[in-house]
Amino acid sequence: MGDFITMIALTDNFAVTPDDLLRQHLLILGATGSGKSTSAVTILHDLMMQNQTTIIIDPTGEYTKLPHAVVAKLGYNAFIDYEQLTGAEIAQIFGVTEAVATEKVVDAWQSLKIQNNVVRQSGVYQKINRPWATFDADAQRLYDYPQPADMHLLPEQLQQEFAVPTDDFDLIGQTVDQAGFRTLLPLIRRIKSQTSQPAFQQLFNLPSRKKIATVGMRTDVMYLMRLFSSQRSEQKILVIDLSELADNLGLGKVVVSLLMTALLRIKQTGTQQLPVTVLIDEAHRYLLQQPGVVDGILRVAREGRKAGLYLMLTTQSPLDLPAGLLGQFGNYLIHRLNTATELAQLPALAPLGQRIALQQVGEAILAGNQFVPPRELQIRQVAAMQHQTASPKFF
Q: Which of 148, 165, 327, 341 could serve as a FRET partner for 370 with CA atoms 20 to 30 Å apart?
């Protein structure tokens, strides 16, 4: 695991090492307008100036004007390559949470890959009257690296996954369990609706049956994350702009989880041991809280440190985060919090409760395992790193 090599000046006369500040992850808390975004970019600036790799997950596009930003706007000039997704990830995209439905989507996605890459014919992979031995041989011929498949055929393929035998158990099936298939009709409608939308096709780089207006060059965001994770940043920040997903928060949550899971995989399997810091702004928007689904943010919080992947989350209140995630943070930068209920989530700071509630814009308390006793700070502003956070004024 690589080491940080610089200092971060939080105020004009107080600096910390990135190791102390970030190695146990950093949670930046504060009510709207308290200065938490300014604190985040101050930290990012000092990391960037020392060529430390930083990635921003930006929900609104407010960080896209930062100097030296490489902006990947998902659904516009950047995409997630659907060919690299697993069947379980495909299920998440379409909002599947039940175990049985997830298993059917996983099987259907595998079948479509077999049809396209092994059988090499259009249409669905027929399971009616197909021997298990033939299917097993076809599945063995699938290779591990990404393979294309026709996502538009997923509803039709799902019907094949309900094939059941009647008297010949060497066959996958001889008829379709129509009653079982009907339980997936709401999912079928979602799949058909979403895969027909140009915005969805742009986001996942799906082949479109209609011509879609695009920018000249579009980039796989996974490629950009691999690139930034494998070398010094040359004073650049990767900003992944999610503003195109603002009207579909459910899909946005899945996308962030996919990105974090992919980034963790990149770091765990990569040969370069460089530290990577990820800022997820307004993180409470993007936490998956579905039964049986492990959120990518939580996975990074639990497993990322060993791979040199460090989280910096901003959110308005500790109440926004589940206890399992809140407990993964060793350090806190706390701006103004307005209620006693919020302060109760941070019992170690109870003696400073009154001070936290009265903090002015830009004032913060730095606390945590590396900062005992807590320090009261007036966070410095970096003029070059101003970003679009101010609310419009009436006069």
A: 341
Whether residue 275 is found in the same domain as residue 298: yes
Inter-residue long-range contacts of 136-144, CB under 8 Å, 24+ positions, other chains counted: 138/114, 139/110, 139/114, 141/114, 142/110, 142/113, 142/114, 142/117, 142/118, 143/117
Question: What's the pLDDT at 175?
Answer: 97
Do 366 and 252 share a structural domain? yes
Asked if 242 and 301 sit in the same domain, the reply is yes
Q: Sort strands 331-334 and 363-368 into parallel, antiparallel or unpaired.
A: antiparallel
| Nearest in space to 260 (alpha carbons), one of 72, 28, 56, 78 | 56
Residues forming beta bridges with residue 241, ordered by sequence position: 58, 73
- In this structure, the dihedral spanned by the alpha carbons of residues 294, 257, 329 and 6, taken in order and rounded to 10 degrees, is 140
| DSSP type of residue 66 | S
Does residue 167 belong to any structural domain of this protein? yes
What confidence tens digit (pLDDT) does each residue in 58-110 have?
A: 999 999 999 989 999 999 999 999 999 999 999 999 999 899 999 999 999 99
DSSP 8-state code for residue 8: E
Given phi > 0 = left and psi -120 to 50 = alpha, else beta, which region is 368?
left
Residue 357, judged by CB atoms within 10 A of its CB (0-12, 13-18, 19+), counts as middle
Kindly report the CATH number assigned to the domain that includes residue 12: 3.40.50.300
* Beta bridge pairs of residue 280: 57, 313
What tokens were used for 127? 């399971």
Question: If we measure between CA atoms, which residue out of 71, 388, 385, 127 comes closest to residue 242?
Answer: 71
Instruction: Quote the Cα angle for 209-214-220, to 5°.
Output: 90
Q: Tens digits of per-residue pLDDT, 117-163?
A: 999 999 999 999 999 999 999 999 998 667 899 999 999 999 999 99
Residue 228 has pLDDT above 80, yes or no: yes
Q: Beta strands 237-241 and 69-73: pairing type?
A: parallel
pLDDT score, position 301: 95
Helix (H) or strand (E) holding 93: helix 87-93
Per residue in 38-63, pLDDT (tens digit) is: 999 999 999 999 999 999 999 999 99
Cα–Cα dist 28/51, whole Å: 23
Buried b (16+ CB within 10 A) or exposed e, 8-35: bbbbeeeebebebbbbbbbbbbbbeebb
State yes or no: cis peptide before 392, omega within 30 of 0. Answer: no
Residues 235 and 348 in one domain: yes
